[in-house]
Amino acid sequence: MEPNSRKRSTLIRPGDGLVIAFFVPVVIMIIIFIQRGIFPFGEESFLRTDMYHQYAPFFSEFQHKLRTGGSLLYSWDVGMGVNFAALYAYYLASPLNWLVILCPKAYIIEFMTGMIVVKIGLSGLSFAWYLRKHCHTETAAVGYFGIFYALSGYMAAYSWNIMWLDCIILFPLIVLGLERLVKDENGFFYCITLGLSILSNYYISIMTCLFMVLYFIALLMLEKPGPIKKYVMACVRFGLFSLIAGGLAALVLLPEVAVLKSTASGNMNFPKTLTSYFPIFDMLARHIGNVETETGLDHWPNIYCGVAVFLFFLLYLACKKISAKEKTVYCGLLLLFFASFSVNALNFIWHGLHYPNSLPCRQSFIYIFLMLFVCFRAFQYLRDIPRRHVAAAFWGSVCFVILAEKLVEQEHFHFAVYYVAILFLAAYTGLIYLYKKRRRELAAFLALALVAVEAAVNTTVTSVTTTSREAYTRDNKEVQALMEKLEPAEDFYRVEKKTRKTKNDGAWMNFPSVSLFSSTANADLTKFFKRMGCEASTNAYSITGSTPLVDSLLSVRYALYSEYIPNTDLVNYIQESGGTYLYENLYTLPLGFVLPYDLADNWQYQMENPAEVQNDLCLLLGTDDVLVPVETEVSGSGCTFTADMAGEYYVYIQNKKVKNVKASLPSGEKNFSNVDRGYLLEMGNLSEGSRITLTPGESGETLTAAVYRFSPRAMIQVYDRLSQSPLHLDSWRDTKLTGTVTAAESGTLFLSIPYDEGWTITIDGQPAEGEKILEAFLSVPVEAGTHEISLIYMPGGLIPGVVISGASAAVLVLLWIVKRRRPSQAGV
């Protein structure tokens, strides 16, 4: 096991370290999946949080485009229409994801799950390989440290973030590449691996790039003193190869940058005051195993990587064969990360000048890398470390755990974790003594077993939550069968599921939709949805709370229900498939229609009450109000109303402190959540005389509400006014729409397409300037008469990005050729 030993173990050979680092985490994950009953070992799935709501739908849409030849530049199946190139850059850019084209449609969830398991194994492999190369060792123990890198607290918390994992795999390789750049004056490996990381996921790569700057300075400090020229040339190489790495990824990076300006993350308000979230001692305590991971809004880092780090870190500090300079540099880096976890300004910087919305300390994988590396450095000199140092390290670690039990008050810590930690510390100490007694083959085998058990127990206790696979896929075949009946369509349409699993059901089942949950969500569109009474939050908007008027404005022609409903004046049944019912909204406006020039300016769409916003549009159009007020009565802390006539009813909660509402309906109780977002609560169709009681979910709060009945007659009047000059599409594809519009008089062609500078519009063959209308949508002025309209989409930044990536690749090849021809000279 010692670094320079030539003795071959009969139990674990030195070369087995890389095999151990890959296969042990993979086997552990498979065993946990079997225990959890994850398909095909049961009917559960590893769809967790955003993987459930975002990643699976986006993978489905990606596969659909690859298989059908759809464009990777734009998609109508996600949130009214989105820049798919930007969505791809954020969620799907890993080159390994292209393998999804080989996966049967029904097993996309399993494809993602399998990729996560493989990437976890590759993470352990890459870290073990780094230790071998950096430390010039063949010991199999690199595999033990690789296991803890692959199954760390970071992975326990965030392994379901499949788009981050490529960066975790590549990080040790990038570090090794930077070390070669400084020591061997060869920056090619660094450049290629960093470029691939940025290409795979630019967001986590921001943190990698920040650390590379710090680590480059650290490497210069660790180098033997030399002439100034040496440092200048190192800086030149670092800057040059870092720029080329960024340039290689420009084809996905620049389109993403263009879109981020329009998202909720676009505003960067640097904190004005410095604050600390928690003390260093409490953060250190999170090295204790089996501690519940933090994925919410608290800021706790997930830094577990084996309790043996308590021992080995103390041995590292005490080891006389490790220079004081090295200890100072690496301990300084570790301390900097502790500060970045706790200090708000540093936290803001590490996350790309933005506070993360949950999932805290996303840079903690770098800290884990550093901690495991310094512990391995102590392990290298374990044979030379006195036994008294081992004893002191053990008792020091035990004392820390005992103090943690006394002082740490986090709810994540169960009392049992402290006892388990002490047991593992004792076991590791015993193995160290066995190793020092020259029973190294046996110690190596027992150490592998102990490491595997500890990592498996921690992952089992703190990770791999599941959801029902059957529930997620229950109506997929029925929905797809109904959607196939609609294609190809003569004119543009959107579809919404009334009973959704996610806000991205359109992407999951590949039909043009309205709702969206994505970090690339358009912030202006989110505001519009909220103003119209639909549910919306920071990175999401949906059709929940929508009235028939909103459906019509957004070209929602079809609706999918999980139960049969009678036909109304506005909705007509079409057909069903296996318990899923397809209906048509009879008065749906087309994708585009001509408005008077001044309508958008005069519409008071920024009022707080969305019912008043919709009625103000009716006022401008000269129609009756679509939402008719209904009297309410105070009933304790809630309110009651009686349906004055049969129809569809909506409620607007005026008290913003109320977050949950229970409605007692004739069909039974119905609960509404996130009511403080200000959306209209849909009571459904009520018969005349129905008496409804609304009560708040929060004790001590009084519910104040405005109740409205929707008027079909007024809706038809609005439709008749707005549909007089419609856009008739001849064809509509992902990135191109063509059609004709006949304007009775000059006005503005309103398009229910989210505003995006990537759209190029021509009218009668002549370029026209697209404008933003209602702060969210695309529009263009048109003169009276009949016009040919064409819209073509090209993501902003894509063409420059392709040019920069091509030029960067050419420069890198040229530098490689130059270096090959001058092998005897130091250079780039």
UniProtKB/TrEMBL annotation:
A Pfam cross-reference name: YfhO
Transmembrane segments: 20-39, 73-94, 106-129, 141-157, 164-182, 202-222, 234-254, 300-318, 330-353, 365-382, 389-404, 416-435, 442-461, 798-818
Superkingdom, natural source: Bacteria
Keywords annotated in UniProt: Membrane, Transmembrane, Transmembrane helix
InterPro entries: Uncharacterised_YfhO
This protein's name: YfhO family protein
